[in-house]
Amino acid sequence: MGALVVVEGLDGSGKRTLTAALTAALEARGATVASLAFPRYGASVEADLLTEALHGRAGDLGASVHGMAALFALDRGGARAWLGGALGGHDVVLLDRYAASNAAFGAARLHQHADGAFVEWVRELEFGRLGLPVPALQLLLRVPVALAQQRAAGREAEDTARARDAFERDGGLQERTGAVYDELAAAAWVSPWRVLEGTVDVDTVAGALLG
């Protein structure tokens, strides 16, 4: 059975870049790797509803913190069979976002902390009721909020298909989400965490994952 490793962080923190770099480093060491990004935009009804809500095209859906969180969770629930197959056939399964994103953003929207009721609700929903596999390790890619927002804005300017959504445009939300992420990591929420900041030595991280 392979190891489920999750890359977490704010919008614009560099999760996609890190996931690709880790995949290459792990494969260079002879490991088999599968990867997936959540939400699965274009691949699930739940994810498509989420993108509509985040861009103001789904009425008042986006205003419901629990409603949005349920859709994020159900999108992952729809990938449970894929996750099981990938873990059975690969050394490492890398995920760009997982349940902790749901916990961090939702708690931040409600002005709660990691020890609040919302985070516990997400844990029970995703790992209890939906039965999603628990990560072996969660990597928190920590960057300053201002830098993450600058990157997101630059990405939007370069590619109109990647227009920032309501969460990405809300600097206050990103700030609070970063604080909740730090709390989740400090509490080792659900499974062990490792915080990465500054220049990440991808080869060292890859070696630790296989060690």
TrEMBL record:
Domain (Thymidylate kinase-like) ranges: 7-167
Keywords: ATP-binding, Kinase, Nucleotide-binding, Transferase
MF annotations from Gene Ontology: dTMP kinase activity
UniProt cross-references to SUPFAM superfamilies, sorted A to Z: P-loop containing nucleoside triphosphate hydrolases (SSF52540)
InterPro entries for this protein: P-loop_NTPase (IPR027417), Thymidylate_kin-like_dom (IPR039430)
Domain of life: Bacteria
Entry's family note: Belongs to the thymidylate kinase family.
Protein name from the UniProt record: Thymidylate kinase
